[in-house]
Amino acid sequence: QSYCHRLQHDMYFLISTSRLNEQVVDKIVLQLNRVYPQILTNEEAEKFRNPKASLHTRLSDLLKHLQKKGDRHCQEFYRALQINAEQLFNDLPSRKILKTPDPTEIDTDKEQYMLNDRGPVFFLACFSMAAGLALFWYCCNSETQVIGRARRILGFSPIIIGRHVRNICMLYLEDMSRN
What we know:
disulfide bond; CARD19; Caspase recruitment domain-containing protein 19; mainly alpha; transmembrane helix; CARD; Death Domain, Fas
């Protein structure tokens, strides 16, 4: 895909919701004006840096002007954008298309959000259910000695549960072992 087509595809993204601020646009125009090869003449650079015109108008005029000039000019715009606003450059729609050339491939960013949208309550519910099933299976198994092992675990857990709760549990376990 040529840089002119990419710029046409990214134009709405760049212009909408003020993704580029005045300083970044001025830096890009200056770079296109001063760096070899000179893409913008001095008059064109002054036109696109005119503070009397709105940023939206200047940016859309700049992008249209670059598209008319050709592929090399659009390529230099992308280079200037990458240097001056790397995060925005990485978020461009055309860059995301280039990153996933296979349309059947799963977009990992979307998949990450899809897996994590359930929240902490869902995680706690699943964890509690798994812990409850494990405890039930452990307690119902006739080959294990639950009381002795539980006493050892509770004896070493003063940090996890309070001293009073631990004493009550220990008394309960001793009472259960007598019966």
